[in-house]
Amino acid sequence: xxxVIVASAPPSVRAGFIRKTYLHxxxxxxxxxxxEVLLFxxxxxxxxxxxxxxxxxxxxxxxxxFALLGWLSRGLAARADAVSLQYTGLGIxxxxxxxxxxxxxxxxxxxxGPETIGMAGILTGLLFAGLTAIVFTTQKDFSFLGxxxxxxxxxxxxxxxxxxxxxxxxxxxFSVAMVIFAAGAILYDTSNILHHYxxxxxxxxxxxxxxxxxxxxxxVLRVLMALNRR
Length: 230
Prior knowledge:
The chain is mainly α. The chain is 83% helix and 0% strand. The protein contains eight helices and no strands.
């Protein structure tokens, strides 16, 4: 059967697409956790953290490299009909996220305690489940959020770059705003899965969801770090 839009597919095909998408999302999350364990066990996480402490502009290099890899991998996965290319995009993105997250997790464990990381993971999972339930229950198309998220994303990126260049902290409320932004991204991505993806794009769909979940986890963790400083 040729690929069609998920919303137009028979119920059994649609259910299979959704099942494969979320299984791949779970696999991506599991791979991310495994990579973080490896980075901490090998000492690479601490080395990356020391690099950032030594030069605040290294954050810009890491964020710039991450943004480039993210754009390439997500674009590759979204535009590829071949599942193998979608897997390549997903793999690149998961590795890039793991490297970017390592210094934050080191800071979180030192500033707020290792238990804060687990708490952030649980809260992220609960928020993701709730947002997913909203989309699946209402069946509403949240594609109208796309332009809003694009504008908000550029504003947030500009603020982050300015904070690194000029050395000021964005503070707790920026992290809270970014949690809301990530929640909107999850609504948007989940809606796209139901209404706009093709039935052969389950890997690309899982990549988009993983990106939004990772963003949500990042800022939930930053909120908890600000509230639970030792």
